[in-house]
Every structure is written in structure tokens, then in C-alpha cells.
Design brief:
Layout lengths: L5 E7 L21 H15 L5 E8 L8 H8 L9 E6 L6 H9 L4 E7 L3 H7 L5 H13 L5 E7 L6 H13 L4 E6 L7 H7 L13 H17 L3 E4 L2 E3 L6 H7 L4 E4 L4 E3 L4 E3 L4 H9 L6 E4 L3 H9 L6 E2 L2 H16 L3 E4 L2 E4 L1 H5 L1 H6 L4
Parallel strand pairs: 1-2, 1-9, 2-3, 3-4, 4-5, 5-6
Antiparallel strand pairs: 6-8, 7-8, 10-11, 11-12, 13-15, 14-15
This protein binds iron/sulfur cluster.
């Protein structure tokens, strides 16, 4: 039997208790009273959405949705059809979990949690503005397992101010000791708009601005993570994502495989298989447009699928399945990267080699006209 086509659903909850020093998202501490207006606008957007494709995956992130009170959590997801979702992930800040909240999450259909750990080193965490420590994370993971959520992700950031090869190794060991099904490793690219970025520009000392590891050091941290996790059965399946076999994120795979997803809330992006669009970036504008009865869709584009197939799909370790028209169009580019050892070919599949992964942004540029 052929299953009907499905979509992913993403909900943005852009509210955080504090603004992390490296963060350049449109999330953070928001004006008082905005949260309830935002929840009301979100409910209207969900009710007005064309759900001709039912979601089989759901992801609620963007800020700190784990801070939503247990009694209110179910209301947020109530209008999303497709329950029970095959995978429904909630992004959580360490230290914001309670058994009552976890029970409310599972009642609402959540079956996976992504914990924004970032580091297990107290001094590194303190400079980001995060309040948790390694013990908080261990307690949260135990609480999740006790609450019936054994499918979880731990996020790490390589390149935090003050990070060294030794401290990075300590974080990697701490991750492995918790036996996570999934790990994400993001290489920090300091954005000028973040507090850390402006401190660096000003030549200041706050947030460890004088102590940001070099690009070479960060690349070395990443390679150490790939090797360390592989040695413990956690394989890289996308540039920033690692999983035990079968624990890959089904929702995020939709992004890299160009499958449809619907984004709801501020700064949420959508793709229906042909057209991409996004909602207003700032929560306050999202609510204002809703109150004024104005459409939320912005920046509609119809991207070239042949280009996207490579600059999105080559992020995956499995690579991209090519057909003759791809070789007609990008043949010289493929041959150049194959000869340079940045890509490898297996039958009609092309993928990045470990060397190619380290310069992936430069490679992706070659597929954008
Ligand atoms: S919790 Fe995430 S979204 Fe919120 S301020 Fe920190 S990095 Fe940004």
C-alpha cells in the first residue's frame, strides 16, 4: 500500500528567559504581554492553514518552548492535525524541565526532545549567558527517560569563547556518557548582530570576546567530534547532525530532501514542494499583521529545484542521487571537486568527502546561479 504524501509542521516559539550572547535569531526576551497575543495569533494561523497534506512530523522550537507552562502547552498544539505524529520534537532549555511539563508534552503528542546543552563546561556556559551546568543536563536526561521520552538530542556548539581541545574533549565525553540517540554539533560563526559579535568589533572583553578559538581550532573540534561519536556508534548523517542508526531526525530530513513543510509563527519558513515563503521575522510584527488582518506570507520564491537538490542535499552524508540532466548542467563542477578529493562518486550518487565537508559552504556556492 502506498502511503499518502505528508508534510512537516514547524512551530516557532520565539520567547526566551535571556538573550544568549552569541544568538542572532529573532528570539529572546520579548515585550510583556506579547506571549498571550502571540499564542492567539498562532492559533488563528493554525486554524486557517490549508492542511491538504497531513503532518507526520512536528517540531516546536525557535526560542524556548519548554518554558510554556504545563497547563497551557496542549492548547498550542491542539489545532495541528495528523496525530499521533511519527516524530514530534520540542526544543528545551536545560533547567526548564519538570516531571509535570514532560507529562503535558507527552499528552500533547511530543515524543522527542532536543536539549540546548551547548557545552558541559561551566565557564563556557557562563559566557553564553546560559544558567545551567553539566549536572542540570544529567538530571534533565534522567527526567526525560523517566517521563517516557527516550528519544532525545543534545546540541553542542564548537568554537565557544575559551573552548580548548581539552575542554571540548570533556564535553564530548560527557555527551557519550549520556548515551543520546542523536547529537547536533554547530560550529559557531560569530554574527556581528549578536552581543558577542559587537563586543568583538568594539575590541571589548565581555562574553570572552578576546578568547574566541581560531577557525582552524574550531575545524579541529568538529573533526574530533566526528571521530569520537563514530567510535561510539553515533554516525554523522548530515554536516551538523549525528545519530545512532534509526534515530535520525525525520523532521529535519525533510529540509535536506526538499520535502514539504509548513512553518507557523514568526520567522517560520515554509516549502510546499515548489514555492518557498516565510512569515514576518519579528514576533511583534507577526502579531501586528494578524491583528490588522493582513496576510502573513512574505518573500515568496520558486527556487530552481536542480540547484537546491545539490546545495541542500549535499549536506547529507548519503549525498545526492544524480541523473543525466544534472551532469549536463553541473558536469564541470562535479569533475573539479571529484579531482580535488572534495567529492566522491558511487554509481549515480555524489557525496562530499570529509575534506569536502570542511569547505562545504564554498562548494554549495557553485550550485547557486
Ligand atoms: S535560547 Fe536559543 S533562541 Fe533563545 S536567546 Fe538563546 S540561542 Fe537565542
Amino acid at each position: 500500500m502506498i502511503s499518502p504524501p505528508t508534510t512537516g509542521a514547524y512551530i516557532s516559539w520565539p520567547f526566551c528567559a535571556q538573550k544568549c550572547t552569541y544568538c542572532n535569531f529573532a528570539s529572546g526576551v520579548q515585550p510583556k504581554g506579547l506571549e498571550s497575543d502571540y499564542a492567539a495569533a498562532l492559533a488563528v494561523e493554525i486554524a486557517a492553514t490549508d492542511w491538504h497534506l497531513l503532518p507526520d512530523t512536528l517540531y516546536i522550537g525557535g526560542g524556548t518552548p519548554s518554558a510554556i507552562p504545563a497547563a497551557e502547552f496542549g492548547d498550542i498544539l491542539q489545532g495541528i492535525p495528523g496525530q499521533p505524529w511519527t516524530e514530534a520534537t520540542l526544543e528545551a532549555a536545560p533547567g526548564s524541565l519538570t516531571p509535570e511539563k514532560i507529562a503535558a508534552w507527552t499528552r500533547a503528542g511530543i515524543n522527542r526532545v532536543s536539549l540546548g546543552v551547548q557545552s558541559f563546561i561551566r565557564s563556557e556556559l557562563a559566557r553564553t549567558g546560559r544558567k545551567h551546568d553539566a549536572e542540570t543536563v544529567r538530571r534533565d536526561v534522567a527526567m526525560l527517560r523517566e517521563g517516557g521520552i527516550g528519544n532525545f538530542n543534545l546540541d553542542l556548539i564548537s568554537g565557544l569563547p575559551g573552548q580548548t581541545a581539552a575542554s571540548w574533549r570533556e564535553s564530548l565525553d560527557a555527551v557519550v556518557a549520556l548515551e543520546p540517540p542523536h547529537v547536533s554539533v554547530y560550529m559557531l560563526e560569530v554574527d556581528d548582530d549578536s552581543r558577542l559579535g559587537s563586543e568583538i568589533i568594539l575590541g571589548g572583553k565581555r562574553y570572552g570576546a578576546f578568547d574566541v578559538p581560531s577557525e582552524d581550532a574550531v575545524a579541529g573540534f568538529y573533526e574530533a567530534a566526528v571521530d569520537h561519536f563514530a567510535a561510539h556508534g553515533i554516525q554523522r548523517y548530515e554536516i551538523s547532525n549525528f545519530a545512532r542508526p534509526g534515530a535520525e531526525s525525520l523532521h529535519n530530513l525533510k529540509y535536506w530532501r526538499r520535502e514539504p513543510y509548513i512553518g507557523l509563527g514568526s520567522d517560520a519558513h515554509s516549502f510546499d514542494g515548489t514555492i518557498r515563503w516565510q512569515n514576518p521575522e519579528m514576533a511583534v510584527d507577526y502579531v501586528a499583521r494578524h491583528l490588522a488582518g493582513l496576510p502573513l506570507r512574505e518573500d515568496e520564491t520558486a527556487p530552481d529545484p536542480a540547484e537546491e537538490k545539490f546545495f541542500v542535499g549535499l549536506r547529507l552524508a548519503e549525498g545526492v542521487h544524480t541523473d543525466p540532466s544534472d551532469w549536463d548542467r553541473f558536469g564541470p563542477v562535479f569533475h573539479r571537486f571529484l579531482a580535488a578529493g572534495m567529492m566522491e562518486q558511487q554509481g549515480s550518487w555524489l557525496r562530499l568527502t570529509p575534506r569536502g565537508v570542511m569547505v562545504s559552504n564554498e562548494i554549495f556556492q557553485e550550485f547557486i546561479s
